[in-house]
Specification:
By secondary structure, this protein is α+β, with helices and mostly antiparallel strands. The protein has four helices and eight strands; from the N terminus they run αββααββββββα.
């Protein structure tokens, strides 16, 4: 009887670990949809841009100055939105949202990151892929239109 239980337990562990691996990766970011990038619950503050799955690609993609603009200076935040396989969010500089703003999107399947930064009339795009043009049109429109918030 013990041997049968051990075999059953081993099979369950194999099946369970396979399902966790299939969900793994960036699936843990899905629960941020609808929340703000700076999420406070009581005394605990969680920061979306400080999560390793978000921070790591941003630090390799952006200069330190651009990273700080996106994650600190642009402190007016919209809720994170789920658009298909993407999570996207817009942030801007207080009192200057019409001119100084940024958008961030991450593909939950691939981990590719896209950032749109606008300062005045200058718009810059950053991507861990070739260009931002691989983004679905709905994600591009969301990142481009801060006034729709």
């Amino acid at each position: 009887m013990k041997r049968k239980n051990l075999i059953t337990l081993a099979l369950l562990l194999i099946v369970f670990s396979g399902s966790v691996a299939a969900q793994g990766g960036l699936g843990n970011l899905r629960n941020w949809a609808g929340r703000y990038p700076t999420h406070k619950t009581g005394r605990v503050t969680r920061r979306f841009f400080q999560l390793p799955d978000v921070r790591r690609p941003l630090l390799t993609l952006l200069s330190r100055a651009d990273f700080n603009l996106l994650t600190r200076t642009y402190s007016v935040e919209t809720p994170i939105k789920r658009i298909g396989d993407f999570l996207a969010v817009r942030v801007c500089r207080p009192h200057d949202c019409d001119t100084d703003q940024a958008g961030f999107a991450i593909n939950l399947r691939t981990g590719f990151v896209y950032v749109r930064m606008q300062e005045g009339q200058t718009t810059r795009w950053f991507s861990t892929r070739d260009t931002y043009k691989e983004l679905p049109q709905s994600v591009q429109e969301f990142l481009n239109d801060f006034s729709a918030t």
